[in-house]
Amino acid sequence: MEANPRSTGRLPAAFLTPGSSSFMDFLGSHAPDLLPGNRKLPDGIVEAPHGTTIVAATFPGGVVLAGDRRATMGNMIAQRDIEKVFPADEYSAVGIAGTAGLAVEMVKLFQLELEHFEKVEGTTLSLEGKANRLSTMIRSNLGMAMQGLAVVPLFAGWDEGKEKGRIFSYDVTGGRSEEHGFAATGSGSIFARGSMKKLYRSDLTEEQATTLVVQALYDAADDDSATGGPDLYRRIFPIITVITDEGFRRLSEEESSALARSVTERRMEEPDGPRAALL
Amino acid sequence: MSTPFYVSPQQAMADRAEYARKGIARGRSLVVLQYADGIVFVGENPSRALHKFSEIYDRIGFAAAGKYNEYENLRIGGVRYADLRGYTYDRDDVTARGLANVYAQTLGTIFSSAGEKPYEVELVVAEVGESASGDQIYRLPHDGSIVDEHGSVAVGGNAEQISSYLDQRHRDGMSLPEALKLAVQALSSQANGADREIPAERLEVAVLDRTRTQQRKFKRIRGRQLARLLEPEVTPAAQADAVSNDEAPEDSE
Protein backbone atom coordinates (compact mmCIF):
# COMPACT_ATOMS: atom_id res chain seq x y z
CA MET A 1 0.00 0.00 0.00
CA GLU A 2 1.84 3.07 -1.23
CA ALA A 3 1.08 6.50 0.12
CA ASN A 4 0.16 7.49 -3.37
CA PRO A 5 -2.68 5.89 -5.28
CA ARG A 6 -2.17 8.05 -8.36
CA SER A 7 1.23 8.85 -9.80
CA THR A 8 1.90 12.35 -8.46
CA GLY A 9 3.77 11.05 -5.42
CA ARG A 10 1.98 13.64 -3.34
CA LEU A 11 0.47 12.65 0.00
CA PRO A 12 -3.20 11.86 -0.69
CA ALA A 13 -5.77 14.21 0.76
CA ALA A 14 -6.69 11.67 3.47
CA PHE A 15 -3.18 12.01 4.93
CA LEU A 16 -3.43 15.77 5.26
CA THR A 17 -7.01 15.96 6.46
CA PRO A 18 -7.23 16.88 10.12
CA GLY A 19 -8.99 14.14 11.99
CA SER A 20 -8.73 11.44 14.58
CA SER A 21 -5.47 10.56 16.34
CA SER A 22 -6.28 6.89 15.91
CA PHE A 23 -4.35 4.85 13.41
CA MET A 24 -7.21 2.37 13.19
CA ASP A 25 -9.65 5.14 12.27
CA PHE A 26 -7.22 6.34 9.63
CA LEU A 27 -6.90 2.82 8.20
CA GLY A 28 -10.67 2.47 8.32
CA SER A 29 -11.18 5.52 6.13
CA HIS A 30 -8.12 5.29 3.89
CA ALA A 31 -7.36 1.58 3.53
CA PRO A 32 -10.22 -0.36 5.12
CA ASP A 33 -9.05 -3.62 3.54
CA LEU A 34 -6.00 -3.54 5.81
CA LEU A 35 -8.07 -3.70 8.98
CA PRO A 36 -8.23 -7.29 10.24
CA GLY A 37 -11.90 -6.91 11.18
CA ASN A 38 -12.93 -6.06 7.61
CA ARG A 39 -11.88 -9.34 6.10
CA LYS A 40 -14.43 -11.51 4.30
CA LEU A 41 -14.86 -14.76 6.15
CA PRO A 42 -15.04 -18.08 4.36
CA ASP A 43 -17.45 -20.70 5.66
CA GLY A 44 -16.23 -23.54 7.81
CA ILE A 45 -13.77 -24.06 10.60
CA VAL A 46 -10.09 -23.24 10.15
CA GLU A 47 -7.39 -25.11 12.05
CA ALA A 48 -4.53 -22.87 13.14
CA PRO A 49 -1.95 -22.90 15.93
CA HIS A 50 -3.27 -21.72 19.28
CA GLY A 51 -1.39 -20.11 22.10
CA THR A 52 -2.34 -21.20 25.55
CA THR A 53 -1.62 -19.85 29.01
CA ILE A 54 -0.94 -16.26 30.06
CA VAL A 55 -0.79 -15.21 33.70
CA ALA A 56 -0.45 -11.87 35.47
CA ALA A 57 -0.09 -10.70 39.04
CA THR A 58 0.23 -7.31 40.65
CA PHE A 59 2.58 -6.40 43.46
CA PRO A 60 3.05 -3.09 45.28
CA GLY A 61 5.03 -1.08 42.70
CA GLY A 62 4.09 -2.91 39.55
CA VAL A 63 2.67 -5.84 37.68
CA VAL A 64 4.08 -9.05 36.20
CA LEU A 65 2.83 -10.60 32.97
CA ALA A 66 4.12 -13.96 31.81
CA GLY A 67 3.36 -16.67 29.29
CA ASP A 68 4.38 -20.20 28.44
CA ARG A 69 6.00 -20.94 25.07
CA ARG A 70 3.82 -23.62 23.52
CA ALA A 71 1.52 -23.33 20.51
CA THR A 72 -0.70 -26.28 19.66
CA MET A 73 -2.79 -27.28 16.68
CA GLY A 74 -5.28 -29.91 17.75
CA ASN A 75 -3.31 -32.43 19.74
CA MET A 76 -0.04 -31.55 18.03
CA ILE A 77 2.60 -29.16 19.36
CA ALA A 78 2.89 -26.61 16.55
CA GLN A 79 5.70 -24.56 18.06
CA ARG A 80 7.77 -24.91 21.21
CA ASP A 81 9.22 -21.43 21.52
CA ILE A 82 6.43 -19.07 20.46
CA GLU A 83 6.37 -15.63 22.08
CA LYS A 84 3.00 -14.61 23.42
CA VAL A 85 3.85 -11.67 25.66
CA PHE A 86 4.70 -8.32 24.05
CA PRO A 87 5.27 -4.77 25.19
CA ALA A 88 2.32 -2.63 24.08
CA ASP A 89 4.20 0.56 24.82
CA GLU A 90 6.62 1.86 27.44
CA TYR A 91 4.22 1.23 30.36
CA SER A 92 2.05 -1.66 29.31
CA ALA A 93 2.19 -5.16 27.93
CA VAL A 94 -0.18 -7.59 26.33
CA GLY A 95 -0.18 -11.38 26.48
CA ILE A 96 -2.23 -13.35 24.00
CA ALA A 97 -4.04 -16.66 24.16
CA GLY A 98 -6.02 -17.98 21.22
CA THR A 99 -5.29 -18.14 17.50
CA ALA A 100 -1.62 -17.25 17.29
CA GLY A 101 -1.55 -15.72 13.81
CA LEU A 102 -4.46 -13.37 14.42
CA ALA A 103 -3.30 -12.54 17.91
CA VAL A 104 0.18 -11.51 16.79
CA GLU A 105 -1.36 -9.33 14.09
CA MET A 106 -3.69 -7.79 16.64
CA VAL A 107 -0.77 -6.99 18.93
CA LYS A 108 1.12 -5.35 16.06
CA LEU A 109 -1.85 -3.13 15.26
CA PHE A 110 -2.42 -2.38 18.94
CA GLN A 111 1.21 -1.33 19.44
CA LEU A 112 0.96 0.90 16.39
CA GLU A 113 -2.33 2.38 17.58
CA LEU A 114 -0.72 3.45 20.87
CA GLU A 115 2.45 4.74 19.20
CA HIS A 116 0.49 6.65 16.55
CA PHE A 117 -1.65 8.37 19.16
CA GLU A 118 1.47 9.30 21.11
CA LYS A 119 3.19 10.82 18.08
CA VAL A 120 0.16 12.74 16.85
CA GLU A 121 -1.01 14.03 20.22
CA GLY A 122 2.37 14.40 21.88
CA THR A 123 1.07 12.53 24.92
CA THR A 124 0.20 8.93 25.80
CA LEU A 125 -3.26 7.46 26.26
CA SER A 126 -4.42 6.72 29.80
CA LEU A 127 -4.22 3.07 30.85
CA GLU A 128 -8.03 2.87 30.68
CA GLY A 129 -7.89 4.34 27.19
CA LYS A 130 -5.42 1.70 26.10
CA ALA A 131 -7.52 -1.08 27.63
CA ASN A 132 -10.61 0.23 25.81
CA ARG A 133 -8.81 0.37 22.48
CA LEU A 134 -7.90 -3.30 22.88
CA SER A 135 -11.55 -4.04 23.66
CA THR A 136 -12.61 -2.50 20.34
CA MET A 137 -10.08 -4.60 18.47
CA ILE A 138 -11.26 -7.87 20.03
CA ARG A 139 -14.86 -6.96 19.29
CA SER A 140 -14.03 -6.48 15.62
CA ASN A 141 -12.67 -10.04 15.59
CA LEU A 142 -15.96 -11.57 16.78
CA GLY A 143 -16.84 -12.96 13.34
CA MET A 144 -13.64 -14.97 13.27
CA ALA A 145 -14.01 -15.96 16.90
CA MET A 146 -17.34 -17.58 15.91
CA GLN A 147 -15.37 -19.78 13.52
CA GLY A 148 -12.95 -20.89 16.18
CA LEU A 149 -10.34 -18.18 15.62
CA ALA A 150 -10.72 -16.39 18.90
CA VAL A 151 -8.12 -14.09 20.43
CA VAL A 152 -8.32 -13.55 24.17
CA PRO A 153 -5.60 -11.29 25.53
CA LEU A 154 -4.56 -10.22 28.98
CA PHE A 155 -3.50 -6.59 29.28
CA ALA A 156 -1.35 -5.27 32.10
CA GLY A 157 0.24 -1.93 32.71
CA TRP A 158 1.41 0.72 35.11
CA ASP A 159 -1.26 3.37 35.73
CA GLU A 160 0.66 6.62 36.13
CA GLY A 161 -2.37 8.47 37.51
CA LYS A 162 -3.27 5.87 40.12
CA GLU A 163 0.36 4.85 40.65
CA LYS A 164 -0.22 1.12 40.61
CA GLY A 165 -0.07 -1.87 38.33
CA ARG A 166 -3.40 -2.97 36.84
CA ILE A 167 -4.60 -6.03 34.94
CA PHE A 168 -7.46 -6.23 32.42
CA SER A 169 -8.91 -9.46 31.09
CA TYR A 170 -11.20 -9.85 28.07
CA ASP A 171 -13.76 -12.23 26.67
CA VAL A 172 -14.20 -12.97 22.95
CA THR A 173 -16.85 -10.27 22.56
CA GLY A 174 -14.45 -7.59 23.74
CA GLY A 175 -15.96 -7.50 27.21
CA ARG A 176 -13.37 -6.01 29.49
CA SER A 177 -12.99 -6.51 33.20
CA GLU A 178 -10.38 -5.33 35.58
CA GLU A 179 -8.82 -8.09 37.66
CA HIS A 180 -7.55 -7.49 41.15
CA GLY A 181 -4.41 -9.22 42.30
CA PHE A 182 -3.96 -11.89 39.68
CA ALA A 183 -5.48 -13.21 36.47
CA ALA A 184 -4.98 -15.86 33.84
CA THR A 185 -6.28 -16.59 30.36
CA GLY A 186 -6.03 -19.48 27.91
CA SER A 187 -6.62 -23.21 28.16
CA GLY A 188 -4.37 -23.71 31.19
CA SER A 189 -5.81 -20.71 32.99
CA ILE A 190 -8.07 -22.77 35.25
CA PHE A 191 -5.07 -24.50 36.78
CA ALA A 192 -2.92 -21.36 36.83
CA ARG A 193 -5.67 -19.43 38.58
CA GLY A 194 -6.08 -22.15 41.22
CA SER A 195 -2.35 -22.11 41.80
CA MET A 196 -2.17 -18.35 42.18
CA LYS A 197 -5.25 -18.26 44.38
CA LYS A 198 -3.34 -20.32 46.93
CA LEU A 199 0.00 -18.55 46.63
CA TYR A 200 -0.92 -14.91 46.03
CA ARG A 201 -0.57 -12.27 48.71
CA SER A 202 -1.02 -8.56 48.24
CA ASP A 203 2.41 -7.68 49.67
CA LEU A 204 4.64 -9.64 47.32
CA THR A 205 7.99 -8.27 46.23
CA GLU A 206 8.88 -8.13 42.56
CA GLU A 207 11.00 -11.30 42.91
CA GLN A 208 8.19 -13.12 44.69
CA ALA A 209 5.70 -12.05 42.04
CA THR A 210 7.89 -13.37 39.22
CA THR A 211 8.30 -16.65 41.13
CA LEU A 212 4.53 -16.80 41.63
CA VAL A 213 3.82 -16.60 37.90
CA VAL A 214 6.39 -19.30 37.15
CA GLN A 215 4.75 -21.57 39.75
CA ALA A 216 1.36 -20.87 38.17
CA LEU A 217 2.64 -21.64 34.67
CA TYR A 218 4.22 -24.82 35.96
CA ASP A 219 0.90 -25.91 37.45
CA ALA A 220 -0.91 -25.03 34.22
CA ALA A 221 1.57 -27.11 32.19
CA ASP A 222 1.25 -29.92 34.72
CA ASP A 223 -2.46 -30.42 34.08
CA ASP A 224 -3.09 -28.86 30.64
CA SER A 225 -1.51 -30.65 27.69
CA ALA A 226 -1.62 -27.49 25.56
CA THR A 227 0.56 -25.52 27.97
CA GLY A 228 4.31 -26.04 27.87
CA GLY A 229 6.38 -26.18 31.03
CA PRO A 230 9.97 -24.94 31.28
CA ASP A 231 12.01 -26.93 28.72
CA LEU A 232 15.39 -27.29 30.44
CA TYR A 233 16.82 -29.48 27.68
CA ARG A 234 16.10 -27.06 24.86
CA ARG A 235 16.62 -24.00 27.04
CA ILE A 236 13.12 -22.67 26.42
CA PHE A 237 11.80 -20.77 29.43
CA PRO A 238 8.62 -18.78 30.03
CA ILE A 239 8.62 -15.15 28.96
CA ILE A 240 8.33 -12.99 32.05
CA THR A 241 7.82 -9.24 31.89
CA VAL A 242 7.66 -6.69 34.66
CA ILE A 243 6.10 -3.24 34.38
CA THR A 244 6.82 -0.66 37.06
CA ASP A 245 6.98 3.13 37.15
CA GLU A 246 10.29 2.75 35.35
CA GLY A 247 8.56 1.12 32.42
CA PHE A 248 8.44 -2.23 30.71
CA ARG A 249 11.19 -4.78 31.28
CA ARG A 250 11.46 -8.30 29.98
CA LEU A 251 13.50 -10.64 32.14
CA SER A 252 16.66 -11.79 30.40
CA GLU A 253 17.05 -15.44 29.48
CA GLU A 254 19.48 -15.80 32.37
CA GLU A 255 16.98 -14.46 34.89
CA SER A 256 14.03 -16.47 33.62
CA SER A 257 16.09 -19.66 33.35
CA ALA A 258 17.32 -19.24 36.92
CA LEU A 259 13.72 -18.84 38.12
CA ALA A 260 12.47 -21.78 36.08
CA ARG A 261 15.34 -23.99 37.24
CA SER A 262 14.83 -23.26 40.92
CA VAL A 263 11.08 -23.91 40.65
CA THR A 264 11.72 -27.16 38.73
CA GLU A 265 14.31 -28.29 41.27
CA ARG A 266 11.92 -27.75 44.17
CA ARG A 267 9.26 -29.70 42.29
CA MET A 268 11.60 -32.70 42.21
CA GLU A 269 11.15 -32.83 45.96
CA GLU A 270 7.53 -31.69 46.04
CA PRO A 271 5.86 -32.43 42.70
CA ASP A 272 2.67 -30.59 43.66
CA GLY A 273 4.48 -27.41 44.57
CA PRO A 274 4.34 -25.22 47.66
CA ARG A 275 1.57 -25.99 50.14
CA ALA A 276 -0.83 -23.44 51.52
CA ALA A 277 -2.00 -23.58 55.12
CA LEU A 278 -5.26 -25.48 55.64
CA LEU A 279 -6.78 -22.72 57.68
CA MET B 1 -16.13 39.92 -19.55
CA SER B 2 -12.85 41.58 -18.79
CA THR B 3 -9.61 40.07 -20.04
CA PRO B 4 -7.30 38.98 -17.21
CA PHE B 5 -3.90 40.63 -17.12
CA TYR B 6 -1.14 38.50 -18.53
CA VAL B 7 1.42 37.44 -15.96
CA SER B 8 4.49 35.56 -17.19
CA PRO B 9 5.09 32.14 -15.59
CA GLN B 10 8.47 33.36 -14.33
CA GLN B 11 6.83 36.31 -12.63
CA ALA B 12 4.05 34.17 -11.15
CA MET B 13 6.55 31.70 -9.67
CA ALA B 14 8.80 34.45 -8.36
CA ASP B 15 5.82 36.06 -6.65
CA ARG B 16 4.77 32.80 -5.06
CA ALA B 17 8.31 32.08 -3.90
CA GLU B 18 8.61 35.53 -2.39
CA TYR B 19 5.29 35.12 -0.62
CA ALA B 20 6.37 31.78 0.88
CA ARG B 21 9.83 33.05 1.87
CA LYS B 22 8.36 36.06 3.63
CA GLY B 23 6.03 33.82 5.59
CA ILE B 24 8.87 31.54 6.64
CA ALA B 25 11.07 34.50 7.59
CA ARG B 26 8.50 35.67 10.13
CA GLY B 27 9.14 32.53 12.20
CA ARG B 28 12.21 31.84 14.28
CA SER B 29 15.07 29.82 12.85
CA LEU B 30 16.10 26.39 14.01
CA VAL B 31 19.15 24.22 13.50
CA VAL B 32 19.80 20.52 13.10
CA LEU B 33 23.33 19.21 13.74
CA GLN B 34 25.09 15.91 13.69
CA TYR B 35 26.99 14.97 16.84
CA ALA B 36 28.96 11.88 17.80
CA ASP B 37 25.96 9.80 18.93
CA GLY B 38 23.28 11.13 16.63
CA ILE B 39 21.46 14.22 15.50
CA VAL B 40 20.37 17.13 17.68
CA PHE B 41 17.52 19.58 16.94
CA VAL B 42 17.71 23.00 18.56
CA GLY B 43 15.34 25.93 18.20
CA GLU B 44 13.94 28.88 20.09
CA ASN B 45 10.36 28.13 21.02
CA PRO B 46 8.53 29.87 23.85
CA SER B 47 5.69 27.33 23.66
CA ARG B 48 5.97 24.06 25.56
CA ALA B 49 3.04 22.44 23.84
CA LEU B 50 3.39 23.44 20.20
CA HIS B 51 6.50 21.68 19.04
CA LYS B 52 8.79 22.44 16.15
CA PHE B 53 10.46 19.05 16.38
CA SER B 54 8.86 15.67 16.60
CA GLU B 55 9.19 11.99 16.10
CA ILE B 56 7.99 10.54 12.81
CA TYR B 57 9.21 6.98 13.22
CA ASP B 58 11.85 4.86 14.96
CA ARG B 59 14.93 6.62 13.60
CA ILE B 60 13.32 9.56 11.83
CA GLY B 61 12.76 13.04 13.20
CA PHE B 62 11.04 16.10 11.79
CA ALA B 63 11.76 19.80 12.20
CA ALA B 64 9.88 22.70 10.69
CA ALA B 65 9.99 26.47 10.45
CA GLY B 66 7.19 28.67 9.19
CA LYS B 67 3.45 28.53 9.57
CA TYR B 68 2.38 26.20 12.39
CA ASN B 69 -0.89 24.87 11.00
CA GLU B 70 0.72 24.05 7.67
CA TYR B 71 3.71 22.18 9.00
CA GLU B 72 1.61 20.42 11.65
CA ASN B 73 -0.56 19.15 8.82
CA LEU B 74 2.51 17.87 6.98
CA ARG B 75 3.88 16.33 10.17
CA ILE B 76 0.71 14.32 10.79
CA GLY B 77 0.65 13.32 7.13
CA GLY B 78 4.21 12.07 7.57
CA VAL B 79 3.35 10.10 10.71
CA ARG B 80 0.43 8.50 8.89
CA TYR B 81 2.61 7.73 5.88
CA ALA B 82 5.34 6.17 8.04
CA ASP B 83 2.98 4.16 10.25
CA LEU B 84 1.02 2.85 7.28
CA ARG B 85 4.20 1.88 5.46
CA GLY B 86 5.69 0.19 8.51
CA TYR B 87 2.42 -1.67 9.12
CA THR B 88 2.17 -2.83 5.51
CA TYR B 89 5.80 -3.85 5.05
CA ASP B 90 8.26 -3.71 7.92
CA ARG B 91 9.60 -1.10 10.29
CA ASP B 92 12.93 -1.13 8.43
CA ASP B 93 11.18 -0.15 5.20
CA VAL B 94 10.36 3.32 6.51
CA THR B 95 13.19 5.61 5.46
CA ALA B 96 13.91 9.33 5.65
CA ARG B 97 14.64 9.34 1.92
CA GLY B 98 11.17 7.96 1.13
CA LEU B 99 9.52 10.41 3.49
CA ALA B 100 11.52 13.35 2.11
CA ASN B 101 10.45 12.41 -1.41
CA VAL B 102 6.79 12.34 -0.44
CA TYR B 103 7.12 15.73 1.28
CA ALA B 104 8.94 17.15 -1.74
CA GLN B 105 6.20 15.96 -4.10
CA THR B 106 3.54 17.35 -1.79
CA LEU B 107 5.18 20.75 -1.37
CA GLY B 108 6.09 20.90 -5.07
CA THR B 109 2.55 20.16 -6.23
CA ILE B 110 1.10 22.74 -3.88
CA PHE B 111 3.70 25.32 -4.88
CA SER B 112 3.09 24.99 -8.61
CA SER B 113 -0.68 24.58 -8.62
CA ALA B 114 -2.21 27.96 -9.33
CA GLY B 115 -5.33 27.24 -7.33
CA GLU B 116 -3.53 26.71 -4.04
CA LYS B 117 -1.68 29.07 -1.78
CA PRO B 118 1.96 27.99 -1.47
CA TYR B 119 2.87 26.56 1.94
CA GLU B 120 4.96 28.92 4.05
CA VAL B 121 7.11 26.18 5.55
CA GLU B 122 10.62 24.84 5.41
CA LEU B 123 11.17 21.31 6.69
CA VAL B 124 14.05 19.13 7.79
CA VAL B 125 13.72 15.34 7.77
CA ALA B 126 16.57 13.54 9.54
CA GLU B 127 17.34 9.89 10.08
CA VAL B 128 19.96 8.61 12.48
CA GLY B 129 22.04 5.71 11.19
CA GLU B 130 23.98 2.96 12.96
CA SER B 131 27.05 5.20 12.71
CA ALA B 132 27.60 8.86 11.83
CA SER B 133 28.24 7.98 8.20
CA GLY B 134 24.73 6.53 8.00
CA ASP B 135 23.02 9.71 9.22
CA GLN B 136 20.82 11.44 6.68
CA ILE B 137 19.56 15.01 6.80
CA TYR B 138 17.27 16.43 4.13
CA ARG B 139 16.19 20.05 3.93
CA LEU B 140 12.94 20.76 2.10
CA PRO B 141 12.27 24.36 1.15
CA HIS B 142 8.74 25.63 0.39
CA ASP B 143 8.96 24.87 -3.35
CA GLY B 144 9.43 21.12 -3.02
CA SER B 145 13.12 20.88 -3.80
CA ILE B 146 15.27 18.53 -1.68
CA VAL B 147 18.72 19.38 -0.39
CA ASP B 148 20.81 16.56 1.04
CA GLU B 149 22.74 18.13 3.93
CA HIS B 150 25.73 17.00 5.99
CA GLY B 151 26.97 18.16 9.35
CA SER B 152 24.65 21.03 10.06
CA VAL B 153 21.63 22.77 8.60
CA ALA B 154 19.59 25.81 9.52
CA VAL B 155 16.11 26.72 8.34
CA GLY B 156 13.83 29.69 8.90
CA GLY B 157 14.15 33.43 8.54
CA ASN B 158 17.77 33.91 9.49
CA ALA B 159 18.94 30.62 8.01
CA GLU B 160 21.67 31.88 5.71
CA GLN B 161 23.57 33.72 8.38
CA ILE B 162 23.21 30.88 10.90
CA SER B 163 24.27 28.33 8.30
CA SER B 164 27.47 30.14 7.52
CA TYR B 165 28.19 30.53 11.26
CA LEU B 166 27.72 26.78 11.69
CA ASP B 167 29.66 25.84 8.57
CA GLN B 168 32.74 27.56 9.98
CA ARG B 169 32.52 25.98 13.43
CA HIS B 170 30.81 22.60 13.20
CA ARG B 171 33.01 19.54 12.94
CA ASP B 172 32.31 15.82 12.87
CA GLY B 173 32.21 13.85 16.11
CA MET B 174 31.29 16.72 18.47
CA SER B 175 29.91 15.66 21.84
CA LEU B 176 26.27 16.47 22.59
CA PRO B 177 27.06 19.40 24.96
CA GLU B 178 29.48 20.85 22.40
CA ALA B 179 27.01 20.55 19.54
CA LEU B 180 24.19 21.93 21.66
CA LYS B 181 26.22 24.94 22.77
CA LEU B 182 27.34 25.63 19.23
CA ALA B 183 23.71 25.49 18.09
CA VAL B 184 22.62 27.96 20.77
CA GLN B 185 25.47 30.33 19.89
CA ALA B 186 24.50 30.13 16.24
CA LEU B 187 20.85 30.89 17.01
CA SER B 188 21.71 33.83 19.24
CA SER B 189 24.29 35.44 16.94
CA GLN B 190 23.08 38.54 15.17
CA ALA B 191 24.27 40.03 11.92
CA ASN B 192 25.24 43.29 13.63
CA GLY B 193 27.41 41.47 16.18
CA ALA B 194 25.13 42.29 19.12
CA ASP B 195 24.42 38.75 20.28
CA ARG B 196 21.36 38.19 22.40
CA GLU B 197 20.89 35.58 25.06
CA ILE B 198 18.34 32.78 24.71
CA PRO B 199 17.37 31.41 28.14
CA ALA B 200 17.11 27.63 28.50
CA GLU B 201 13.33 27.83 29.11
CA ARG B 202 12.86 29.21 25.62
CA LEU B 203 14.83 26.44 23.96
CA GLU B 204 13.26 23.40 22.41
CA VAL B 205 15.78 20.58 22.15
CA ALA B 206 15.38 17.02 20.90
CA VAL B 207 17.78 14.31 19.82
CA LEU B 208 17.83 11.22 17.70
CA ASP B 209 20.23 9.24 19.82
CA ARG B 210 21.60 6.08 18.21
CA THR B 211 22.84 4.78 21.59
CA ARG B 212 19.30 4.53 23.01
CA THR B 213 18.39 0.91 23.67
CA GLN B 214 14.78 1.38 22.57
CA GLN B 215 13.73 0.95 18.99
CA ARG B 216 12.51 4.54 19.00
CA LYS B 217 15.52 6.86 19.05
CA PHE B 218 13.76 10.23 19.33
CA LYS B 219 13.90 11.93 22.69
CA ARG B 220 13.11 15.42 23.96
CA ILE B 221 15.64 17.05 26.27
CA ARG B 222 14.13 19.30 28.89
CA GLY B 223 14.50 20.74 32.33
CA ARG B 224 17.44 19.74 34.41
CA GLN B 225 19.00 17.54 31.80
CA LEU B 226 19.02 20.43 29.37
CA ALA B 227 20.48 22.78 31.98
CA ARG B 228 23.22 20.25 32.70
CA LEU B 229 24.12 19.97 29.03
CA LEU B 230 24.27 23.74 28.72
CA GLU B 231 26.60 24.25 31.70
CA PRO B 232 29.68 26.21 30.57
CA GLU B 233 32.47 23.91 31.78
CA VAL B 234 31.65 20.28 31.20
CA THR B 235 34.19 17.86 32.58
CA PRO B 236 34.35 14.47 30.88
CA ALA B 237 32.89 12.84 34.02
CA ALA B 238 29.90 15.18 34.14
CA GLN B 239 29.40 14.63 30.45
CA ALA B 240 29.24 10.88 30.88
CA ASP B 241 26.83 11.48 33.75
CA ALA B 242 24.54 13.57 31.57
CA VAL B 243 24.40 10.84 28.95
CA SER B 244 23.98 7.93 31.38
CA ASN B 245 21.13 9.72 33.11
CA ASP B 246 19.35 9.79 29.81
CA GLU B 247 16.35 7.82 30.99
CA ALA B 248 16.40 8.89 34.60
CA PRO B 249 13.64 11.09 35.98
CA GLU B 250 14.25 14.74 36.78
CA ASP B 251 15.48 14.22 40.31
CA SER B 252 18.38 11.99 39.37
CA GLU B 253 20.94 13.96 41.37
TrEMBL record, chain A:
Pathway: Protein degradation; proteasomal Pup-dependent pathway. It is found in: Cytoplasm. GO terms for molecular function: threonine-type endopeptidase activity. The active site is at T52. One of its GO terms (biological process) is modification-dependent protein catabolic process. Keywords: Autocatalytic cleavage, Cytoplasm, Hydrolase, Protease, Proteasome, Threonine protease, Zymogen. Pfam families: Proteasome (PF00227). GO terms for cellular component: cytoplasm; proteasome core complex, beta-subunit complex. Its EC number is 3.4.25.1. The formation of the proteasomal ATPase ARC-20S proteasome complex, likely via the docking of the C-termini of ARC into the intersubunit pockets in the alpha-rings, may trigger opening of the gate for substrate entry. Interconversion between the open-gate and close-gate conformations leads to a dynamic regulation of the 20S proteasome proteolysis activity. NCBIfam families: 20S_bact_beta. HAMAP family: Proteasome_B_B. The 20S proteasome core is composed of 14 alpha and 14 beta subunits that assemble into four stacked heptameric rings, resulting in a barrel-shaped structure. The two inner rings, each composed of seven catalytic beta subunits, are sandwiched by two outer rings, each composed of seven alpha subunits. The catalytic chamber with the active sites is on the inside of the barrel. Has a gated structure, the ends of the cylinder being occluded by the N-termini of the alpha-subunits. Is capped by the proteasome-associated ATPase, ARC. Belongs to the peptidase T1B family. PANTHER family: ATP-DEPENDENT PROTEASE SUBUNIT HSLV, METALLOPROTEASE TLDD. This is Proteasome subunit beta. It comes from Streptomyces venezuelae. The lineage of its organism: Bacteria, Bacillati, Actinomycetota, Actinomycetes, Kitasatosporales. The gene is prcB.
Automatic annotation (TrEMBL), chain B:
One of its GO terms (biological process) is modification-dependent protein catabolic process. GO terms for molecular function: threonine-type endopeptidase activity. This is Proteasome subunit alpha. It is found in: Cytoplasm. One of its GO terms (cellular component) is proteasome core complex, alpha-subunit complex. The 20S proteasome core is composed of 14 alpha and 14 beta subunits that assemble into four stacked heptameric rings, resulting in a barrel-shaped structure. The two inner rings, each composed of seven catalytic beta subunits, are sandwiched by two outer rings, each composed of seven alpha subunits. The catalytic chamber with the active sites is on the inside of the barrel. Has a gated structure, the ends of the cylinder being occluded by the N-termini of the alpha-subunits. Is capped by the proteasome-associated ATPase, ARC. Belongs to the peptidase T1A family. Keywords: Cytoplasm, Proteasome. Gene3D superfamilies: Glutamine Phosphoribosylpyrophosphate, subunit 1, domain 1. Residues 232-253 are annotated as: Disordered. The formation of the proteasomal ATPase ARC-20S proteasome complex, likely via the docking of the C-termini of ARC into the intersubunit pockets in the alpha-rings, may trigger opening of the gate for substrate entry. Interconversion between the open-gate and close-gate conformations leads to a dynamic regulation of the 20S proteasome proteolysis activity. PANTHER family: PROTEASOME SUBUNIT ALPHA/BETA (PTHR11599). It holds the Pfam family Proteasome. InterPro entries: Ntn_hydrolases_N (IPR029055), Proteasome_alpha (IPR050115), Proteasome_alpha-type (IPR023332), Proteasome_asu_bac (IPR022296), Proteasome_sua/b (IPR001353). Component of the proteasome core, a large protease complex with broad specificity involved in protein degradation. Pathway: Protein degradation; proteasomal Pup-dependent pathway. Its main location: cytoplasm.
